[in-house]
Amino acid sequence: MDFKDYARQPQKLASGQKSCSGCGFPIIIRMAMSAIDRPFVVCQGTGCVSVTTTTWPFTSWKMPTIHSAFPNLASTAAGVETAVRVMKKKGKLKKDIKVVAFGGDGGTYDIGIQALSGAIERRHNILYICYDNQAYMNTGGQRSSATPYGAATATTPHGTLHHGKELFRKDLTYIVAAHDVAYVAQASIFDFADLTRKVKRAMEVDGFAFINILSPCVLFWKIPTSDAYKISELAVKTCFWPLYEVDHGKWILNFKPEHKMQIEAFLKPQGRFKQLLELRNRHIVDGLQQRVDRKWKELLFMCEKTKEKPEKKEVKKVKKKKIVKKPVKKGVKRKPEPKIKTSKTRSKFAKLKDKLKRKRR
Amino acid sequence: MKKKKAGKKPEKVKIKKIKVKKPPQPEWKTKPIGGMIFEAGNSLKYLTGTWKTARPITNYDKCIHCLKCVVYCPENCIKAKNDKKDHTEYQYCKGCGICAQVCPVKCIKMEDEDKFQE
Ligand SMILES: Cc1ncc(C[n+]2csc(CCOP(=O)(O)OP(=O)(O)O)c2C)c(N)n1
Ligand code: SF4
Ligand code: SF4
Ligand code: SF4
Ligand SMILES: [Mg+2]
């Protein structure tokens, strides 16, 4: 999919939703829905998405949508999916309807993880998209387990003793991948083609699909309204938010930056990290950098480990080794280096002798 | 006099009320259930364009019609026609400036909204 395909489509989320100017999640939702080409039902848990798109008596959605409390979004989606399945079985419904759920990080990483885990385990045919804005934004920016180390939030403020959240964030994409789910991916608005391809793939697979997307929040990340794209780009290029997917247990890295940037590039433009730029807080930045590096290494290892067709490559290597081994053995017999030279001279002499012998004959 | 009239009227009304009492129930039943919205995409009636403090102005001479701004506008208020950027719907534009930042040739300029108020 490219920009032109997007522009040709009728919009599935109407204008007039009330998110802050420059917020990241409407971009995510619009991009994701542009990649879906079959009828679907949307479920949304309480959070900025539901509050800004379905403020009674207005709705921005152009398809059936159901709003649920944020602890049980996955359960609501599972219920809708089951209803669709049963109605199809009874012949009351003929269309192939998919269920798409949009949940915030608070509702997905924290209070809703039990419902999510249950829905995954029951193998419901749902696409669950988590827009990760890294805190409880709708209620005033309280920290969640998705909030990164060092970020100042309403409940982990920057002061004289403490300088933001002092705990590392949890990696939900890994947790979902550990469920051995049909499809898990991490995406960003930075790469439109990648995001839409992932949504398309998630709609294809039979079973639970989960996509985690970083959603810049203007208000509580304290960034200029125009920076949602730039910050997403920096998050990807510093490897803070790597783009990868796990398709039926196979890990695939989708974007490898040519030059891995330092984490400061991502921290600097954001007001929530401004205390980390002080010299006395250098250790926090270093801690964050170490964490990012370790996670990146882990990811590369997982991708390498689950790479396809490893057997053929091994066979090739073995063949090469066999060819290499023979001359090595010869060398080993004539251990000292100078002797090789002499051997060369000897061989020259031997050749000369042979020639002489032939001539004599 | 008034009191007498007032005293007489309620008697008549009471008789009427008994007849009228039944209709309110179906009327209530025809009303939509609370918390439901039946008109899909009716947020178009809510004009978020009044929020903006800056207005994106496109220089169409420089524009290469890559449509990147169409994709990255959170309000979907930049419209394209025949694969070309056509216009910006200012009644929904919140003036965030994302379009100006993502434009590869930088042909969108954010201008102060005050200029356009009069
Ligand atoms: C059970 C319950 N507890 C608390 C709330 C209050 N509440 C509403 S939205 C919200 C924050 C949601 O955060 P998140 O899921 O991250 O979405 P965001 O607002 O960041 O988009 C909270 C705590 C609630 N609606 N229900
Ligand atoms: S608070 Fe943050 S996430 Fe919520 S609408 Fe505003 S910018 Fe978006
Ligand atoms: S300023 Fe923001 S809302 Fe307005 S057209 Fe540009 S991207 Fe869209
Ligand atoms: S991003 Fe810039 S060049 Fe591309 S269509 Fe928009 S205004 Fe034109
Ligand atoms: Mg959140």
Q: What features would you describe in this structure?
A:
The complex is a heterodimer of chains A (about 350) and B (about 120). Chain A has about 350 residues and is of the alpha/beta class. Chain A has a single domain, classed as 3-Layer(aba) Sandwich (Rossmann fold), CATH 3.40.50. Helix content of chain A is about 45%, strand content about 10%. Chain A is built from 13 helices and eight strands. Chain A has helices spanning about 5-10, 25-35, 50-55, 75-90, 105-110, 115-120, 170-175, 190-205, 230-235, 265, 280-305, 310-335, 335-360; strands at about 40-45, 65-70, 100-105, 125-130, 185-190, 210-215, 245, 250-255. An eight-stranded mixed sheet of chain A has the order 2-1-3-4-6-5-7-8, with helices on both faces. The longest helix of chain A is centred in the C-terminal third of the chain and has 24 residues, at about 280-305. Chain A is globular. Chain B is an alpha+beta fold. Chain B has a domain at about 40-115: 2-Layer Sandwich (Alpha-Beta Plaits). Chain B has helices at about 1-20, 25-30, 70, 100, 115, and strands spanning about 55-60, 80, 85-90, 110. In chain B, the strands form two sheets. In chain B, strands 1-4 form a two-stranded antiparallel ribbon. A two-stranded antiparallel sheet of chain B has the order 2-3. Chain B is elongated. The mean pLDDT of chain B is about 85. The interface of A and B includes residues 14, 23 and 61 of A. Thiamine diphosphate (TPP) binds near residues 47 and 133 of chain A.
List keywords for this structure.
heterodimer, A: 361 residues, alpha/beta, Rossmann fold, 13 helices, B: 118 residues, two-stranded antiparallel ribbon, two-stranded antiparallel sheet, 34% helix, elongated, binds thiamine diphosphate, binds iron/sulfur cluster, binds magnesium ion
Task: Describe the secondary-structure layout.
The complex is a heterodimer of chains A (361) and B (118).
Chain A: H1 3-8, H2 25-34, E1 40-45, H3 48-53, E2 65-68, H4 73-89, E3 98-104, H5 105-110, H6 113-121, E4 126-132, H7 172-177, E5 183-188, H8 192-204, E6 209-214, H9 228-237, E7 244-247, E8 250-253, H10 264-267, H11 282-305, H12 310-333, H13 337-360
Chain B: H1 2-20, H2 24-30, E1 54-58, H3 68-72, E2 78-81, E3 84-88, H4 98-102, E4 108-112, H5 114-117
Antiparallel strand pairs in B: 1-4, 2-3
The complex binds thiamine diphosphate, iron/sulfur cluster (3 copies) and magnesium ion.
One iron/sulfur cluster binds next to helix 3 of chain A.
